[in-house]
Write a structure and sequence with these properties.
The structure is a single chain. The protein contains 14 helices and 8 strands. The protein has a 6-stranded parallel β-sheet. β7, α9 and β8 form a beta-alpha-beta unit. α7 runs parallel beside α8. The N terminus is likely disordered.
């Protein structure tokens, strides 16, 4: 039994062990760094073991797939994270099986509200502009349901009744999936300050390596935030803002060259029902 426990911990440690380097990076940058260590497991006991081990390593955040793991397990983990100073990132794997077809299942806004009640600090919400599609107004509707205290009824955004969360903690939306530096103006305008922007391939795909990729994204973000605060229109001036910033950031200039032709063109499936749609169903 001791051998089995040791082997399981070594197996987890193999994927978690690189986090020990974060102290070096933190000292170089002066910023707190972390990695979303995945605590999702086949049973609740193993999930809690992984969360506890992540805490032992000193990481600031863990991740959980709340739909595959289940709401009870997710709430258990959320309470543990809140009590032990860990952030909880929520992944929504399996959501498309539930919310993508209009003829069955339920809308993601319902799943998002259920997650807010279950517990978590931020959750994938689609990007509007990347590969994780979503109609803009609908996405903004459930983003407000995630992070605001009081949301007025607004059928144009898919909010069919006024929601008062009273003092229930909010959840930050996470934009992730197929996004890169050219998307930054739109992401800044759509999601605002209280959000998380995750660039995976948009960072690692930089021709000079991971660190320059991170620099490019940071420069693009700060340029867009500064431009917005100065009163510039990100919707119409976004590309020009990025080009201006690229003149003094070689990392951003290289990223702009790599991603300039990358687009995801498709019809959004997540749309509001129109009267014509309702007539067809009848």
């Amino acid at each position: 039994m001791k051998q089995k426990i040791r082997s399981e911990k070594e197996e987890i440690g193999g994927s978690y062990g690189e986090c020990g380097q974060k102290s070096i990076i933190e000292s170089e940058t002066g910023e707190i760094k972390g990695h979303y260590l995945n605590a999702t497991a086949g049973n609740c006991d193993e999930m809690m073991k992984r969360a506890a081990f992540a805490r032992e390593l000193g990481v600031p955040i863990v991740m959980h797939d709340y739909l595959t793991g289940g709401f009870t397990a997710n709430t258990t983990l959320a309470h543990y994270c809140r009590d032990n100073g860990l952030l909880l990132h929520i992944h929504r794997a399996m959501h498309a099986v539930i919310d993508r077809q209009k003829n069955h299942g339920m809308h993601f806004r319902v799943l998002a509200k259920a997650l807010r009640m279950s517990g978590g600090d931020h959750i994938h919400s689609g990007t509007v502009v990347g590969k994780l599609e979503g109609e803009r107004e609908i996405t903004l509707g459930f983003v407000d349901l995630l992070r605001d205290d009081f949301i007025e009824k607004d059928r144009s955004r898919g909010i069919y009744f006024t929601q008062d969360w009273v003092s229930l903690p909010g959840v930050l939306p996470v934009a992730s999936g197929g996004i890169h530096v050219w998307h930054m103006p739109a992401l800044t305008e759509i999601f605002g300050d209280d959000s998380v922007l995750q660039f995976g391939g948009g960072t690692l795909g930089h021709p000079w390596g991971n660190a320059p990729g991170a620099v490019a994204n940071r420069v693009a973000l700060e340029a867009c935030v500064q431009a917005r605060n100065e009163g510039r229109d990100l919707a119409t001036e976004g590309n020009e803002i990025i080009r201006e910033a690229a003149k003094w950031s070689p990392e951003l200039a290289a990223a702009c060259e790599v991603w300039k032709e990358i687009k995801f063109e498709f019809q959004a499936m997540d749309t509001l029902d129109t009267d014509k749609d309702k007539d067809k169903k009848r």
